[in-house]
Amino acid sequence: MKLPGWTRRDSLLGLVSVGASAWLPTVHAGQVEEPLADSVRGALRMAIESAGPPNHELLPQASRERFERWSRDIGPRLARQKSHPLERDEFLRTVWYYATRQGLDPTMVMGVIQVESAFRKFAVSVVGARGYMQVMPFWARLIGNGDASLLFQLNANISFGCVILRHYLDRERGDTFYALGRYNGSRGRAPYPNAVYAAMRRWAHPDA
Fold first, then answer.
1. What local confidence, expressed as pLDDT, does residue 6 receive?
2. CA-to-CA distance for 113 and 187, rounded, in angstroms?
3. How far apart are CA 167 and CA 117, in angstroms?
4. What is the pLDDT of residues 45-77, one digit of tens each?
5. Which residues have a Cβ under 8 Å from the Cβ of 41 and sit 6 or more positions away?
6. φ/ψ of residue 23, rounded to 5
7. Domains, the chain, ranges and CATH?
8. pTM value?
9. CA torsion, points 185, 189, 191, 196, in degrees to nearest 10?
10. How far apart are the C-alpha atoms of 114 and 157, rounded to whole Å?
11. Which residues are 135's β-sheet partners?
12. What confidence category does residue 82 fall into, taking pLDDT thresholds of 50, 70 and 90?
């Protein structure tokens, strides 16, 4: 699998192995609050509201079949972080649902989660980012109901994280290097995107 942006200039700077600590403190920052046009804020809010709780029946049959193959293979790789089978299945179903709803590669979402929180539900960064995908609390005010505590819930956190990542990818016209940098608040610097690219290797799968 060729990772997007892997050959970009400086792409080897700050590279860390997946077997080591791919979530180095030096790559931790957080999304930066920026002015949003009313139309953009409305679209992001609608994306959050319309997704609802994970319901794979809303996904195309082909997507559901790919998920079944993906989860069977990815599940054992996640056993160390999520030891209980039911919790692991719920987590993978949630990631797949919100990632595919936003047109994202679940492999990248898994990479972001690994780097951001090491799959810790209640992780909090030094700048206040929360949960699995380390969503900054201001997003709850901008595109949510204002309750930042919801960012510790599985569904809300993955939904917000995927919508935000899609927003940054759109802003960067699909350039994952710069979009990931925006997600981390370090646009243009290599350590964070490279950490995600490295983490993605662990979760690579042909059905993602």
1. 37
2. 18
3. 21
4. 999 999 999 999 999 999 999 999 999 999 999
5. 142, 143
6. -110, 60
7. 56-203 (1.10.530.10)
8. 0.86
9. 60
10. 14
11. 130
12. very high
